[in-house]
Design goal:
Dihydrodipicolinate Reductase, domain 2; 281 residues; 60s Ribosomal Protein L30, Chain: A; four-stranded mixed beta sheet; 2 domains; 10 strands; single chain
Length: 281
């Protein structure tokens, strides 16, 4: 049995929150630069120049890439041989989030009641935390900050099994094109297929954590990812929804078994500031 201190998790999460808000993953920045090189439309070129400049300023000055620093969404794998000492795992993650958003001068965007009071909780907590049990004695933490603009454009459909891959691709293109400029394209598109309605939505979010450029290991899904990326970019929505060849930077799809009568499909989007952070303790 390996013991991990509560305070270690708090400090790790705090650092992750600040890093994710200020520094784009290298793969995202490289994709933005490639999109700029290949973008033929002057207005789209100008937008991509500004997006890249903004990312560089944020990283160099350790300031947020965007004022909307998002809902803190965590995916955590905890080994069965791990015990947390000094407090609970959820409390540690929430405390780390609170400290990270305070010390990093990141905006708190969470309200305590979705309908009636809508009073800011301060500290951007509670975080959204998904926990899975894994083998071993390690604690793996992935953070996906989800801004309101892109999160609001999430989509779910309960397709018929007979709709097949073409039905999935058509729904995904419709969801991204229908979102227009709201999610601040060029976007990264996460697609979840299978499971149940709720499981598909979680799969779509987890897909956004896969490094840009890394396809699904199943060659059939890899080909579908390539097709959907091409199909989405032919929509002409373009950077910030103002036209161009680059509506999406990448499409990542994940799947799981489902009921014989069902084919749930979910879409989760990240804006051009496709932020994430990872740590292992």
């Amino acid at each position: 049995m390996r013991i991990i201190q509560y305070s270690t998790i708090v400090d790790t999460v705090k650092t992750m929150c600040i890093d994710a808000a200020c520094v784009l993953p290298k793969g995202v920045l490289l994709r933005l630069k490639k999109a700029r090189e290949r973008e033929p439309f002057p207005r789209a070129q100008e937008i991509l120049d500004q997006v890249i400049e903004n990312a560089n300023i944020a990283a160099n000055n350790r300031v947020p890439i965007c004022q909307d620093t998002g809902v803190a969404v965590f995916f955590i794998d905890i080994g069965s041989d791990v015990r947390i000492k000094g407090g609970s795992l959820r409390d540690a993650v929430n405390e780390g989030t609170r400290r990270g958003y305070a010390e990093g001068h990141l905006r708190g965007s969470i309200v305590d009641d979705p309908i009636f009071d809508r009073v800011n909780t301060g500290g951007n907590t509670p975080a959204v935390i998904h926990i899975d049990i894994a083998e071993g004695d390690r604690l793996s933490i992935a953070l996906l900050p989800k801004g309101g603009g892109c999160e609001n454009m999430s989509a779910l459909a309960m397709l018929k099994p007979a709709d097949g891959s073409q039905g999935v691709a058509a729904f995904v293109r419709g969801a991204v094109a229908g979102a227009g400029g709201n999610p601040c394209p060029p976007v990264v598109v996460g697609v979840g297929v299978g499971g149940t309605a709720d499981a598909a939505c979680i799969l779509a979010k987890k897909a956004l954590l896969r490094p840009i450029g890394e396809h699904n290991k199943d060659s059939r899904y890899a080909r579908l990812e390539e097709y959907m990326l091409k199909d989405i970019n032919e929509s002409g929505v373009g950077p910030q929804g103002l036209g161009g060849k680059h509506t999406a930077l990448w499409v990542a799809a994940e799947y799981m078994p489902c009921h014989i009568a069902s084919m749930p499909v979910a879409v989760s989007l990240n804006c051009h500031a496709a932020r994430s952070a990872f740590a292992e303790i």
